[in-house]
Amino acid sequence: MNQSYLALVPVACVMAACSVPTMAANEELAVEARDAYADLVEGRDDALIARLSSANSEAEVRAQLPMLRSFAPEGLPPQPTTTGWRSEVTTSGQRYALGQIYEYPDRSVTAQTVFLKEDGVWKIESFNINARMKPVGASGAGSDEALIVVKE
Predict the structure, then answer these.
(1) Residues 90-123: pLDDT tens digits?
(2) How far apart are alpha carbons 17 and 45 in whole angstroms?
(3) Phi, psi dihedral angles at 38 (to 5 degrees)
(4) d(CA 108, CA 10)
(5) Smaller CB count within 10 Å for the chain: N or C?
(6) CA neighbours within 13 Å on the CB side: how many for 132?
């Protein structure tokens, strides 16, 4: 085999390694997602609206905020746990999605935040909140206590 071809193998490997995306979550966007959740829970609607992409209708979002806020108890939110993230580039733009769980004594709140890059700045395209109530008397995630439903 020609030695000039062998010399290209390490160069090709280095070039391929440089093009591999990072396998770590974007910490800046994780902080941005935490701050957006805190804005929601603490009633800072204007601050949350300012974080949204132009794809959102301000009036529609404002109408939904009271319902979304009801998923979390009042007060400062706890530190979340990141459940996963996804980064993608398509013909409709560059997006970054981040899942976070906030553990409260009586519930787990999952926030899925999707960012869209607009004019070089990450803005929130969608913000989905779901809550799962814990069984009465549960001490935290993974409790073995059964949920008892009483019919009156």
Answers:
(1) 999 999 999 999 999 999 999 999 999 999 999 9
(2) 43
(3) -60, -40
(4) 49
(5) C
(6) 11
Taking a C-beta distance cutoff of 8 angstroms, is the pair 55, 116 a contact?
A: yes
Burial class (CB in 10 A: 0-12, 13-18, 19+), 94: middle
Helix (H, G, I), strand (E, B) or coil at 82: strand
Query: Look-up: residue for tokens 């939110």?
Result: 77
Distance CA 53, CA 61 (A): 11
Token reading at 104:
């409260």
Mean pLDDT of 28-48: 97
CA distance 99 to 111: 6
Q: How far apart are the C-alpha atoms of 78 and 34, rounded to whole Å? A: 10
